Amino acid sequence: MLEEPLLMTPHCSRRHALRLLTGTALWAAGQTLAAPSKPAGRLPLPLVQPSTFPAVPVPGAVQPLAPGTRPTAALPRLSLPELPELHRCEYAGNGRMEAAHAVLLVNEDDATHARALHLAHDAVTKTFAARPSLAEVAVSVYRAQGYQGFGGVAPLLTASVPVARLGGFLDTALSESARYERLWLNPDAVPPEQLEPSRELERAPVFVGSVAGLAAQRVKQLAAQLVGGTHGGLLFHGRVLGGPAAALSFDDAPHPIYAPLLLDTLKRARVHATFFCIGRNARAYPYYVQDIAADGHEVGNHTYHHVRLTGLPMDTVEDELRRCNEVLRGITGKPVRFFRPPGGRYSPQTLEIARARGLVTTFWTDDPADFNNPGQKVLESRLAGHLRQGGIVLLHDNVLESLRVLPQFVAYAQRQGVELDTVGELAGLESGSA
């Protein structure tokens, strides 16, 4: 049960906010302004950190393990008989439905779309047979040579098969693959060059620039906390007037096991959220992005390869944002309005490029560190302690603890009179507008 800390609703005019900002001389000197007083139980807002803020490297491509945290429990696996190409088949549930993901590896001389589709038919059939309670099965077929796990070199084929669509999927031949819209065939005959993804956890916004630039960013952050809204292409905090609301956001989408579970959870909770998608994930699993948009959620840019942008050449940064935008717009038919830099690291150059593409660089007020697997009780307490009008909640789309806590958190927010919605709604900007 979520504890209910005392919540404070800001009521201040812009003139009063600007008067408060005159006390920021210490920040301009590169020092940290004392955190504002807060009611008991309220956790402090994150402060923009300098580039010396240490990164926390995250090994692996699934659940990271950072210092001082505990590992996540391994997902249960299914054995599929007489399928030597099977690498693994895992499943998970949200308490109301279960979904599975089968990963198959084929040798280079067998890496054709026809062979991959045949194996996908076999794997999906056997997965449903092995666990009849499954509501949906995803399958990803990779080339064995160069396989790097989820988030590495793109699969040869992917598909998503709800149990009600099993017959239609099995009847789909390669020559008529377009008939089954939840099937993706990789058009690249040769895997393109990949950038190494960042495994850094988003813990605080990190500004890479001068001391004066950092001071200016902290002033903008304080202004946003006092008066809310978008300032100079930045969104630190949503509006503080015009109704009690907070944004719910998920990073790193989409993921083939968790996407249907998370969307089902949000639908039952009757809330909408913003999904900051990694372009390469969206490209390989476009039907999940279509599901996100069809359910009324918002799609945001989280770069194409999930790379740390600071330190990269400007043309590479431009390419990362452009490619992700193009993939997402090609799937949803809508322009992308919001961008979240991986690891929270940004610089004047990344802000300039994002603004040129019409993107609002979006941070958060509430990061309960769900990727650190702190335990359900700790996660509940952190979510409750950060909840505030105009707040922006940061979660990740492939964390079981978040899935399990989400219904209670939504109910808690409702009891506090805080409506959870998309970043666009909170900022007063529609994601589909030009």
Automatic annotation (TrEMBL):
GO cellular component: membrane
GO biological process, one term: carbohydrate metabolic process
Keyword Transport: no
Pfam families linked to this entry: Polysacc_deac_1
Record key words, sorted: Hydrolase, Metal-binding
Molecular function in Gene Ontology: hydrolase activity, acting on carbon-nitrogen (but not peptide) bonds; metal ion binding
SUPFAM superfamilies xref list: Glycoside hydrolase/deacetylase (SSF88713)
Name of the protein described by the UniProt record: Polysaccharide deacetylase familiy protein
